[in-house]
Amino acid sequence: MPMIKEYKTVSEVVGPLMMVEGVEGIKFDELVDIQIQDGSTRRGQVLEVQEDKAVVQLFESAAGINLRDTKVRFRGKPLELAVSEDMLGRVFDGMGKVKDGGPEILAEQSLDINGQAINPIRRDYPDEFIQTGISAIDHLNTLVRGQKLPVFSGSGLPHKELAAQIARQATVLNSDEKFAVVFAAMGITFEEAEYFMEDFRKTGAIERSVMFINLANDPAIERIATPKMALTTAEYLAYEKDMHVLVIMTDMTNYCEALREVSAARREVPGRRGYPGYLYTNLSTLYERAGRLVGKKGSVTQIPILTMPEDDITHPIPDLTGYITEGQIILARDLYNAGYKPPINVLPSLSRLKDKGTGEGKTRADHAATMNQLFAAYAQGKQVKELAVVLGESALSETDKLYVKFTTRFEEEYINQGFYTNRSIIDSLTLGWELLSILPRTELKRIKDDMLDEYLPKTEG
């Protein structure tokens, strides 16, 4: 059993931080119970140790703490989460306490929420297709098992609807293995939390989901623990219970704001835009907990969602996230304003592992070729549309006009599928071919002739 040490030597409290003096044998990240004068207990964690002083980060508010009468008990172990398969179908708060009024979880294990770094030699390459039912992702920016693929959104854009749609629809094709969703919400409003819980319950997605919800009025410090709770649950379900787990984390921007708040309270030298200099390292400790392990059936796939402040993709949060993850799905304000759902901006979106999860035996042989051709045709069509704005419709050739028609229908039918349409990859491929048939066959230079013969719809005339 770890040694529990108790002290009554609190010297100061600044925001979410407390300084305890005269301590010995205290370890970084150790769990702390703080008993205040009215007998109630709050929790904290050791953030820094210097000689005989420890800085403790409080998970709850510091209100009402009296320096003289406060007892600080160091537990000798890090923050742990009690895990069990019974967590599926349940809702927890950001610190892992049951929030849905149901019974407590009977723990099979208690796990350190900081996880263990995966040995690179043990990592298996992500190469199995996950179907989200969304054409712009499945066909054009394919998600594979064990990947981390963030969604870059902006304030007011419908990322919560997209997150709920992915949670409802995601499956691993041709597999009877169990699939689960771990959903972590950080700093969201009560209204958004209600939206997710209601949607998950109504559609039955809750049955295979574990939800961790940290509300905007919960302590910011709790936000730092929430994604770790979710990822610890995901690793347990994946590597102990052989499940394929999709972790959806929203909103990573709120998580980074909480880091900034603690950093400011510690009076650290700020980095870009006031975020701590270790923001990159800190984010990588979360994102790198995705993957597959050699010899284990399960996998952890991540979809972190973040709102780019002022829609600025060069802001530190999307910038650093883009370095660590394998691509990004970008939501566009102009598509949203035009009423498209989901407003996925196909051209700057990217999945760096898409080639590994597509093709014969995974999706279909024509997947990669049609994906490249759709990208090229859409890019060309966008250019032609811009040209038409400057020079007028009369300046367009017959082929140009077909590109305009293709682009309009591509946005209205392919991208704009709605939040409740679940398309199989075959549906997406069929629709892709139908749209490509608008263009003259001579324009389809990225697809081999034998494939065109097999799949291109025959046009009348």
Commentary on this structure:
The chain has about 450 residues and is α/β, with parallel strands linked by helices. It has 3 domains: about 5-80, Elongation Factor Tu (Ef-tu), domain 3 (Beta Barrel), CATH 2.40.30.20; about 80-355, Rossmann fold (3-Layer(aba) Sandwich), CATH 3.40.50.12240; about 365-455, no CATH class. Helix content is about 30%, strand content about 25%. The chain is built from 12 helices and 22 strands. The chain has helices at about 135-140, 160-170, 190-205, 220-240, 250-265, 280-285, 315-325, 335, 365-390, 400-415, 425-435, 450-455; strands at about 5, 10-15, 15-20, 30-35, 40-50, 55-60, 70-80, 80-85, 90-95, 110, 125, 130, 145, 150-155, 170, 180-190, 210-215, 245-250, 290-295, 300-305, 325-330, 350. Strands 9, 11, 14, 16, 17, 18, 19, 20, 21 and 22 form a 10-stranded mixed beta sheet that branches. A 7-stranded antiparallel beta sheet has the order 1-7-4-5-6-3-2, with no helix packed on it. A 3-stranded antiparallel beta sheet has the order 13-12-15, with no helix packed on it. A hairpin with a 2-residue loop joins β5 (about 40-50) and β6 (about 55-60). α9 crosses α10. The longest helix has 25 residues, at about 365-390. The radius of gyration is 25 Å and the shape is elongated.
Gross geometry: elongated
Outline the biggest β-sheet.
10 strands, mixed
| Beta-strand fraction estimate | 15-25%
Just name the CATH architecture of the largest domain.
3-Layer(aba) Sandwich
Give the mean pLDDT.
93
InterPro entries: ATP-synt_VA_C (IPR055190), ATPase_a/bsu_AS (IPR020003), ATPase_F1/V1/A1_a/bsu_N (IPR004100), ATPase_F1/V1/A1_a/bsu_nucl-bd (IPR000194), P-loop_NTPase (IPR027417), V-ATPase_su_B/beta (IPR022879)
Pfam families: ATP-synt_ab, ATP-synt_ab_N, ATP-synt_VA_C
Domain ATPase F1/V1/A1 complex alpha/beta subunit nucleotide-binding: 133-351
Function: Produces ATP from ADP in the presence of a proton gradient across the membrane. The V-type beta chain is a regulatory subunit.
